């Protein structure tokens, strides 16, 4: 949605925002994230990003990796983990970032 809004003219953005206020969400995806609240939705988005980054860095995550991420319920800790994963240049650094996040829980 951010990408779409950024590409629109100010007038089109205003029109879309006005229509979105009265929108009844049709997809399961939209209903799930819209109705769960901003902080919970933000944290789930950060968790999704961390898992995607983990998979991109390792090719595939082990069964032990994802629970570490799912156990993090603090936006700052999730953001820190994402940064560490992004900076990691190999599997050893990825595992170290996960270990550090696990300790911070």
What does this structure look like?
The longest helix is centred in the middle third of the chain and has 21 residues, at 38-58. The model has no long low-confidence stretch (mean pLDDT 79). Helix content is 76%, strand content 0%. Helix 4 runs parallel beside helix 6 (75-87) and helix 6 packs antiparallel against helix 7 (91-104). The protein has 2 domains: 1-35, no CATH class; 38-105, no CATH class. It is mainly alpha-helical and 105 residues long.
Helix and strand arrangement:
Layout: H1 2-7, H2 10-21, H3 28-35, H4 38-58, H5 65-70, H6 75-87, H7 91-104
Question: TL;DR of this structure?
Answer:
The chain has 105 residues and is mainly α. Helix content is 76%, strand content 0%.
Features:
single chain, 105 residues, 0% strand
Estimate percent helicity: over 70%
Average pLDDT figure: 79
**What is the count of β-strands?**
0
Regions with pLDDT < 50 over 5+ consecutive residues? none
Order of helices and strands: HHHHHHH
Structural class: mainly alpha
Q: End-to-end distance, in Å? A: 31 Å
Largest pleated sheet:
none
Instruction: Please tell me how large the radius of gyration is.
Output: 17 Å
Describe the global form. Answer: elongated
Structural domain count = 2
Number of helices: 7
Assess the beta-strand content as a share of residues. under 5%
């Amino acid at each position: 949605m951010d990408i779409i809004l950024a590409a629109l003219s100010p007038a089109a953005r205003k029109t879309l925002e006005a229509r979105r206020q009265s929108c009844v969400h049709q997809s399961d995806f939209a209903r799930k994230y819209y109705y769960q609240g901003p902080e919970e939705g933000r944290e789930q988005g950060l968790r999704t990003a961390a898992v995607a980054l983990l998979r991109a860095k390792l090719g595939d995550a082990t069964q032990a990796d994802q629970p570490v991420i799912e156990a993090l319920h603090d936006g700052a800790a999730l953001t820190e983990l994402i940064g560490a994963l992004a900076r990691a240049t190999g599997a050893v650094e990825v595992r170290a970032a996960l270990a550090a996040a696990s300790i911070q829980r």
